[in-house]
């Protein structure tokens, strides 16, 4: 994958194969020996430092510091209203779209604070894509749905090839290759969600954020999405908010547990969180005593 600056919108069309950009924008190059700070054998790609988020006077996240590993699945779990989505939306600055939201502290992506003044949110969201709870295809063809992400980023070369590659990567191509010009809205819910995943990965991001991506789907479609998420983690870093603890246990490598008040109470290997958490509050939550 390519390193591009976060500080300009993507307008060029053909540099997906370009050389890594040296650190003129203050960003570290990908996977250098120097940046191997880690919580496991994988290097850290995302890090929050003393992150506080307020909506008006109400605090939604409190002093959250955590390092997320590259090319692994991190699940974010916790009771309703504890700040899971808020945390996710900080990572690619979706909270910029909420007038009342105020973010303090740092959110580092490859060592660069995404809240620095010189970071372009559009360039950032090319590298950190997002998939939402409700599949939200546009009332356009399957092809145009996937091509949309490319268009927004100013990528206009090899569009058909990129669309097909993204659909294949999202495990959808086989099911839709004869109907690329049909409406994305005619697909089943699970197919629509995989279409949205294809749209997110068409621009070749490094990180995919998923906010309850399977909660609106039936068990068969959910299972396909879960398989896909595990498969995507070979190439991408995935951060997924889920209410479904079994799902978190099944598909994630790391789990972050937020509890009421927007506090990150524990972050660790998923097996440790589910089998032997450090915190009694986390154990109570996992075992269903509250939440
Ligand atoms: N746009 C907003 N304006 C004001 N308050 C908000 C906004 N979005 C979230 N909040 C508040 O921030 C807190 C955290 O919300 P958030 O949606 O991040 O929690 P969550 O853990 O994802 O919840 P759920 O599991 O119910 O989706 C809640 O008290 C919520 O009411």
Automatic annotation (TrEMBL):
Tell me the Pfam families matching this sequence.
ABC_tran
Gene Ontology molecular functions:
ATP binding; ATP hydrolysis activity; phosphate transmembrane transporter activity
Locate the ABC transporter domain: which residues? 46-286
Q: Where is this region: Disordered?
A: 1-42
Give a yes or no for keyword Cell cycle in this entry. Answer: no
What's in the GO CC field?
membrane
Q: Does the keyword Chloroplast apply?
A: no
Its keywords, alphabetically, are: ATP-binding, Cell membrane, Membrane, Nucleotide-binding, Transport
Quick one: a GO biological-process term for this protein?
A: phosphate ion transmembrane transport
Which SMART domains does the annotation name? AAA
Domain of life of the organism encoding this protein? Archaea
What spans are recorded as compositionally biased (Polar residues)?
1-22
Q: What is this protein called?
A: Phosphate ABC transporter ATP-binding protein PstB
What organism is recorded for this protein? Natronosalvus rutilus
